[in-house]
Amino acid sequence: MTLKQLEAFYWAAKLGSFAIAADRLHVTQSSLSKRIAELETSLGAPLFDRSSQRAVLTDLGQRTVPLAHQMLSLSDSVKALVTAPEGLHGVCKFGISELGSLTWLPRFVATVRDTHPNLVLRPYVDLARQLERRVARGELDFAVSPGPSPDSDLQAEVMSKVRFSWMGSPARMGKRRTLRAEDFERHPVITMTEDSGLTRAFDAWAAAQKLQVQRILACNSLMAITGLTVAGIGISFLPTDYMGAWVQQGSLVELVSNPPLPTLNYCFLTRRDDTRGMPQTLRDLVRDAVDFSGGLPARPLRQTT
User: How confident is the model over 242-262, as pLDDT tens digits?
Assistant: First the structure.
């Protein structure tokens, strides 16, 4: 019995897929299957029932999962006692929101490149719910997105708080800077799609105020929503600090609502059973890099006439 065999078995069992487990461990599916078969041979009993199209855990397999987790956790604890001079290595797949990719992602990548040159980063930009699903399935090592997640398999640690404000074009709003309840019936609202953590927060806010909101469209791109808002198509809720360049240029105006929009927590999401050192090390680097107010220079859009 080896730790590699236990690792192959554990992740195949927890992720429910030999293919996803192999990808997570950066081995071929045939290598992963061989390790599990070797473990079954050493135990003298099958851990998976392979009689159907999809392998399912046997009774022994179910009882072995928590023990395998304990052994892997102990292995990670021993490894954590020694800091390898070459740092982290291998491949890290992680998720990030569009706002994060526009602000602190370049700073994070540069830091990882300097401190862990042998680690290959593969960022995936998507909406919160999609990132949560991919972390839960084991397809991503971690994600930084609006949270916390309702998924009980995930644990979330707040990295930063981001303030959002209602915004509109000067042509649409005129001199009005305060939104009243009736304004949400008169002005179309441009929102992110339902998989967005921001949309979830907005829906809860609107429901609490019993607002009747006229939505004109939902879009999965923050920058596309910004362009539509600048063009006067409707009003939208956007990150206050990051949109400062648009406001200063006069392409957008910040609007006041009572009560204000909720501040959104951006969280570092991992599986609760993931005890590897890599996500924990990168979590600390993410915390140092996170700053949603700056990053890539914002390029204000010109208002169309």
Answer: 998 899 989 999 999 888 888
Token readout for 129 is 């719910």
Which of these, 247, 164, 153, lies nearest to 199 by C-alpha position?
A: 164
Place of tokens 């927060």: 201
Beta bridge partners of 179: 257
Q: What is the pLDDT of residues 87-126, one digit of tens each?
A: 788 889 999 999 999 999 999 999 999 999 989 999 999 9
Rounded-to-integer distance, Cα 97 and Cα 123, Å: 10
Full-model pTM: 0.77
Place of tokens 């851990």: 47
DSSP-based three-state secondary structure for 274:
coil
| Residue 102: half-sphere exposure toward Cβ, Cα within 13 Å | 16
- Name the region of 287 (left: φ>0; alpha: ψ -120 to 50; beta: rest): alpha
What backbone torsions phi and psi does residue 267 show, to the nearest 5 degrees? -115, 150
CA distance 229 to 248: 15
Which among 89, 32, 120 is positioned nearest to 276, based on CA atoms? 89
